[in-house]
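User: Sequence in, structure out. Go.
Assistant: Echoing your sequence, followed by the structure tokens.
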Amino acid sequence: MLETPKVLLKNLQDCKIHFIGIGGIGISGLAKYLKAQGAKISGSDIAISPSVKYLKALGVEINIPHDPKAIQNQDVIIHSAIIKEDNTEIQRAKELEIPILSRKDALYSILKDKRVFSVCGAHGKSSISAMLSAICPIFGAIIGAHSKEFDSNVRESANVSLVFEADESDSSFLFSNPYCAIVPNTEPEHLEHYNHDLERFFFAYEYFLDHAQKRVIYKEDPFLKNYSKDAIVLEKKTFKTFNIF
């Protein structure tokens, strides 16, 4: 089910990466995290946002709005899901034969060597990701909401361990390289991405869980209660201690 992206980022240290749509919650998270890993970051967006202001304060060069002149000698271009093929920066990157990756495809290279605690589900994944990152203050974190613990959607860290809020809406959670897969629920949504095929939708969750070394699931979920492989199973109104590290 998982196809390895054709373009792989082999060395993030000093890699020159340009993000198109850098102000979005998902793309800005990757940009902040990769800057902490030593990558040379630039970006563009259509408007100023809190994430853009934060990155600019870190010294990241960001163009508002998109500008093809921003595409020069980068090693790779990463774009958000809403960026279309006719984007001027995408077109310029093609002219210069610079590799172009969607956020989804970029995840494979970014996370493949990390010890990822990957949280996915229809509801509660931002809260769980934020709580887990608070419990593990030395871990890096990329979550889909602003954490009060570290006043950002990202905790920049060079630590090999990472709390990551994964996304099932475009099946990018399958690229998150989960060491520990944490799934509180699997309520069907974003079915248009799965061609409105429930079997395909639930197979994606099964694939995600199967490829983790450790798993945490919620027993009350109609799909998860029938999951057959070893997992830490949480139940309603019960308290238990367990080790996921």
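User: And one key feature?
Assistant: The chain has a mean pLDDT of 90.
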